Amino acid sequence: MNFAKRLRFYLIGFSLGVVLVVFFFGPRSMQCSYFPNSRALEEAKNYPMTYSDQASAMMAAEGIDSLFLYKRILSKSKVTNLGTDEVRTKPCRTYRASYREDKYYDIVFEICDKKTILTEIKKAE
Predict the structure, then answer these.
(1) How many structural domains comprise the chain?
(2) SS3 label, residue 83
(3) C-alpha to C-alpha distances, 111 to 24, 68, 91, 94, 122, nearest whole angstrom
(4) Cα separation of 65 and 63, whole Å?
(5) Cα separation, 40 vs 115, whole angstroms
(6) What is the C-alpha separation between 125 and 121, in angstroms, rounded?
(7) For residues 39 and 35, what is the distance between their CA atoms, to the nearest angstrom?
(8) Domain assignment present for 27
(9) By residue range, what is the domain housing residue 56?
(10) Tens-digit pLDDT profile for the chain (125 aa)?
(11) Which of 5, 10, 53, 64 gives 59 a disulfide partner, CB atoms 3.0 to 4.6 angstroms apart?
């Protein structure tokens, strides 16, 4: 068997294998960041979020909707209190984060059993 024929059989088998792997396993959305900042923010986004009265009032005053909160603020913030005792409290761990992109916000959120509570959001200077 000459090289061209072997190459053709190889490419046919390889392409069928790729199609079968994509069909059975599908495209996956994976997050591979294991840094504490990313883990805290991803965990906050995974659970359903409730808002305190102060946070709801501030969001209404600033025109912040939940989509902007999830896509921008909780994705691009930096958690500022990772080494403190607030993070280790039971039953709710308290995190403080700062968002410094086009607008400046400081947020405080708690991660409890299978829910996230946004307790405070402030406009920073």
Answers:
(1) 1
(2) coil
(3) 35, 19, 9, 7, 19
(4) 6
(5) 13
(6) 13
(7) 6
(8) no
(9) 36-123
(10) 799 999 999 999 999 999 988 888 877 666 677 888 888 888 888 889 999 999 999 999 988 888 888 888 888 899 988 888 878 888 889 999 999 988 899 999 999 988 999 999 998 87
(11) 64
